[in-house]
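Below: protein 1.
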Amino acid sequence: MSTLAAPLRELSVREERILRYPQLTPSQLRVLQMAADGETCESTAREIGMCVQTVKNHRSDAIMKLGADSMTHAVAQALRRGLIR
């Protein structure tokens, strides 16, 4: 008689975020790429032609979707996953 697989473990907060927010939008990827290139929210907003708050919202959403703790962590995660260069 076979035994059941090990009980399911609880997901970490980061894993839950990744499952809940799996896909980055093109705008979120662009904002991440610009952050990786050293651009500020203000310079990103100016170049893309959107308001600074929208850039901040895209950054915040990208951080959540990548399960990151900060913008720097989100950029590192995106680089590791090959989402940005």
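Below: protein 2.
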Amino acid sequence: MARSAPRWWRSRAAAALLALATALLLAAPAPAQAGHRPGPGRSWIAFTSDRDTPDRTDVSTTNDDIYLMDPRSGRTVRLTTAPSGEQVPVISPDGRQLLFQSTRSTRDLPNPEERWALYRCRLHLDTPHPWCGRAHRITGWTPLGAPVNFLAWVPGARSVLYSTEGSIFRLDLRDGAAPVPLLGLAAGEPDAVSRPSLSRDGRVLVYTSLGDLWRARPDGSDRVRLTSTALPLNEGGPQVSPDGTRVAFTSNRRSAPALDYDIWVMDAVPESPTNVPVDLTAGLQPPPFVPCANDPVPPVPPASQERYPVWSPDGRQIAFPWYDEDSLAPGAGYDQGEIYRVDADGGRLRNLTRNYLPGVSRCDPAQIGDIQPDWGPRGTGSRG
């Protein structure tokens, strides 16, 4: 039988363990606070918001800006402050650049017509206070007046895909050459296309055409239809997962002909009995409906809108904007909204922005619009 340790040793050992536990407790990191530095592997969500518009009662002066949010702590940082519209932010695959569209006008590049142009800036994420350097206009892209509705970085961050006016273009960011049409009307095809998304390795391109999802090579060749629906069903806003194996998208297939859109996920191959899309947001319920002043009488509550999903860098979660406006009805539209995240299997649905005011009309200027999220990497090495 083993002998027990003397009582005096046990008491000293207990005291030493207590002292060690106290030291570890005091050395433990504090909860996330404003100005904290995200831990290794932490990612960021860039998004558009009008939360800092000076006069929210005047719709014509609504000022969209670009923000960064840490999805774990909820901390938000404003990146742009120009008195103009800034929208559709996308973070480069290495986390070192931000691309967005803007109507800004400068002394060197005046823009009195407030037409949309593409800009990029150097991101500095590995600092206690992330920031973006001076924004430079992409000179190879002449403003068309019509805004870009989706942007996608090409691996290597030297070129980008974008869609506008029914076509998808590839634009080289280095040489100032004119954009090259890949798909759609500008490429001489009969059907309009939009909303390109690329896998992390750049081998899989997904996009929307005539209310369905399609897959192709990054040069637009070898087109394959992923969904086969007909109006009033509508699939859109596709985002291919980082590894290229799955696609998240927006669809009203659960509620058609109603325009209640949810976020769905399927494998990046044609839909079939063995590849059935899964609805991730069927359980998301909007707050109580409050009609706008210009709503028809009696007012019809708008459908819940969950649109334009984006994958987390590790492919485990999806972020998306929610808003309560019917896309065919008059009203506030994107002037109000929230950003949510959900696990790729439909679990742990969470509101990240929590700005929507319950009991207040969606047309009320007090409502904030948080929209157009893009989930980018932490950006190690982005100090330079």
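The helical segments are 7-27.
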